[in-house]
């Protein structure tokens, strides 16, 4: 159980240039789309899921999730998607104070992601908690206080600043690390070769 209701935002706004275009989360691994695997992993941890994606939202209609597009123009990156999610929550779930974000191309996300991030932000009195593995932080996979919404909008629209890791560093985020054996739970499929590796890793995963 998480300490409080936590919607999950799946970030699918990338343009998949290294795969020749298209939506990375729609690629299949072991006969299932990556997005289907992400939903199966995060659905039990979050009180609802929504998807950040740009373009025609109907391409994701079969998943039955609300689709929120970036409100900041020119695809400025994951921070714009996070802002879109925070704006949606402020409008539709004013009772909620925290949001999880996760990359929609990470098929092996940990089952204790939300619980451990909440624990870390409580212990650290932090407004952001982010995931790490193998000595590397993954700032797009994190827990965000909805109170950051105005700060984030100013960062994107006034400062024109888009670097996720450097922005989160302003708030001294809590960092939670996961082991990378038998697989890195934050492995993401960015290239055609990554899809082949994900097929192998899927045999080690119990999703």
Structure, described:
With 207 residues, this protein is an alpha/beta fold. The chain has a single domain, classed as Alpha-Beta Complex (Spore Coat Polysaccharide Biosynthesis Protein SpsA, Chain A), CATH 3.90.550.10. The protein contains six helices and nine strands, in the order βββαββαβαββααβα. The strands form two sheets. The chain has a seven-stranded mixed beta sheet with strand order 5-4-1-6-8-7-9, sandwiched between helices. Strands 2-3 form a two-stranded antiparallel sheet. Strand 7 and strand 8 form a beta hairpin. Helix 2 (78-92) packs antiparallel against helix 4 (149-157). The radius of gyration is 16 Å and the shape is globular. The two termini are 19 Å apart. Residues 16-20 have low confidence and may be disordered.
> Beta-strand percentage?
15-25%
CATH homologous superfamily caption: Spore Coat Polysaccharide Biosynthesis Protein SpsA, Chain A
Number of strands: 9
Oligomer: single chain
Span between N and C termini? Answer: 19 Å
Structural category is alpha/beta
Return the string of H and E elements.
EEEHEEHEHEEHHEH
Helix content: 25-40%
The CATH topology is given as Spore Coat Polysaccharide Biosynthesis Protein SpsA, Chain A
Mean pLDDT, nearest integer?
Answer: 90
In short:
The chain is an alpha/beta fold and 207 residues long.
